[in-house]
Specification:
The protein is α/β, with parallel strands linked by helices and about 500 residues long. The chain contains 18 helices and 23 strands. The strands form six sheets. Strands 10-15-14-13-11-12 form a six-stranded mixed beta sheet, with helices on both faces. The protein has a six-stranded mixed beta sheet with strand order 18-23-22-21-19-20, sandwiched between helices. The longest helix has 27 residues, at about 170-195.
Length: about 500
């Protein structure tokens, strides 16, 4: 506890007044005087407390429709003056500028105004000038001044007032300054991103209130999540969500969003190990689980329809980490909540960013999300034989899955059910062999199944292996100088091959 200072005069000018009354009453009890603007002054006076108007201090009225209120030397001089500097003290006396020891200010709701879809002129008027200047000035002079830059700091300030009265330490003031610069930098980031309009000309990202996770990918790694998880999900049951849970949840959501028909998916380490589209949620679950009942242990479950009791009882037979659905029947929740640590999430209607970024080396990679979804009309035949309607449906299904599988990736599908996949292999041949072996180990016949590849075939070896396993139709992006070799093999052996023209690498 060092460099304790007493607050004697406070400048208060806030847009949001919730929770302010308790603060100013306590400050008044401690003998702190107030200077304020417009609505905040009226609010303080409505509590029966004296308050000087900024106009009285500066000798100037609020002008330009309220754009200029506090931008004046008599305001900023009292904030920025260094109390231990003789010259600063002399100038305060010369120009009759009172010292300000506490600044309570917040900023116009810029992000909220943008999110509301307001017209540009209304958005521009919500770019705060006086408030942001007061925050920076007070935070810069934290050795002498306390800055409260948002209502999020009301509680810490009130705690100090209750514990120590109007006294603050240097450590207190520096902490408030740090929080203030977080507010100002986040505000400026939001404004920049509005003007940048998604061009990505400069990388700027600011998220408040991190969630402290139990650990990172491994127990010896610390981890935080910067985001607004509660805007996307309601967690209605279970333990705290972990770093790895979040990775899998993100993958699960992006995968299920590819499907309009009733679909159930099981993911493990961000890859689908089982997925099926069916007429009922119970059928979809059973066929998704059949794709790999071993890997489903400890997995992430997701569906795009409500969970009923029937399927809940089936699901409850295995151990899993997380389940995600748009809703749950009451009796279904009674079943699923039998395991106290099981994470149950309700997915909300919420937009997620259309860009992705990740840190590496000494910088950040940023790219558009892979939001391409091919339909039947987007496919181009490469072979003499054409797939029938059932094969087309399966090819599109398989292509969606391979898009969300780690490269090199192969997916094998039959009747809108994942039979098996080979993922994360250094060789596409190895990925295919892995998928075939896995499908057979779980009793799938691949006769009449289809295959999707996330990238082109440089040689016809994969096509030959697939044909020998019973595959009848293939979908791939094409683009190899040796495409003709794969096409020739398909024509010779009666396989259908369709071209998407879009590669789906995933690291």
């Amino acid at each position: 506890m060092t460099a304790s200072k007493r607050m004697r005069r406070a400048l208060v000018s806030v847009y949001h007044k919730e929770g302010l009354a308790e603060i100013v009453k306590k400050l008044h009890e401690e003998g702190v005087s107030f200077v304020s603007t417009g609505g905040t002054q009226a609010f303080i006076e409505s509590l029966g407390l004296p308050c000087e108007a900024v106009e009285e201090l500066t000798g100037y009225p609020s002008i330009l429709g309220g754009r200029v209120k506090t931008l004046h030397p008599k305001v900023f001089g009292g904030i920025l003056a260094r109390r231990g500097n003789v010259t600063d003290k002399e100038q305060l006396a010369e120009y009759t500028i009172p010292e300000t020891d506490l600044v309570i200010v917040d900023l116009y709701p810029f992000e909220e105004t943008v999110a509301s879809g307001a017209a540009e002129q209304e958005v521009i008027e919500k770019i705060d000038i006086g408030g942001i200047s007061l925050i920076r000035a007070a935070a810069k002079n934290y050795k002498d001044v306390v800055i409260i830059a948002s209502k999020a700091q009301y509680s810490p300030l009130l705690h100090i007032l209750e514990e120590k009265g109007a006294e603050t330490t240097l450590e207190d003031r520096r902490w408030f300054a740090k929080e203030a610069f977080a507010v100002s930098s986040g505000y400026d980031t939001a404004i920049f991103n509005y003007f940048d309009n998604g061009e990505g000309s400069t990388f700027r990202m600011a998220v408040d209130e991190p969630v402290h996770l139990r650990y990172g990918e491994n127990p010896h790694q610390q981890a935080l999540f910067f985001g607004k998880f509660n805007e996307v999900f309601d967690q209605i049951h279970g333990k705290e969500i972990s770093y790895n849970n979040l990775l899998d949840i993100d993958s699960a959501v992006t995968l299920i969003d590819e499907f309009c028909e009733l679909t159930f998916a099981i993911l493990k380490h961000t890859n689908a190990c089982g997925i099926a589209s069916r007429d009922t949620v119970t059928e979809a679950w059973r066929d998704a689980l059949a794709g790999d009942p071993v890997s489903a242990f400890g997995g992430i479950l997701i569906t795009n329809v409500a969970i009923n009791k029937e399927v809940a009882e089936e699901i409850n037979k295995i151990f899993f980490e997380v389940i995600i659905a748009p809703d749950y029947d009451t009796d279904a929740l009674e079943v699923l909540m039998q395991k106290k640590n099981r994470i149950i999430l309700i997915r909300k209607e919420a937009k997620t960013p259309a860009i992705q970024f990740r840190s590496l080396l000494n910088g950040v990679l940023m790219q558009d999300k892979d939001l391409s979804i091919q339909a039947a009309g987007d496919l181009e035949p490469m072979t003499e034989k054409q797939p029938d309607p059932g094969e087309i449906a399966d090819l599109l299904f398989a292509n969606k899955l391979v898009k969300h599988s780690k490269s090199n990736a192969i997916t094998l599908v039959k009747n809108k059910q994942l039979c098996a996949s080979g993922v994360g292999q250094t060789s596409r041949v190895d990925a295919l062999k892995q998928a075939i072996e896995k499908a057979r180990s779980f009793g799938f016949s691949l006769n009449g199944a289809v295959m999707a590849s996330d990238a082109f075939f440089p040689f016809p070896d994969c096509v030959e292996i697939a044909h020998n396993a019973g595959i009848t139709a293939i979908i791939q992006p094409a683009g190899s100088i040796n495409d003709k070799l794969s096409v020739a093999y398909c024509n010779e052996h009666g396989l259908a091959m369709m071209k998407t023209g879009i590669r789906h690498f995933k690291h």
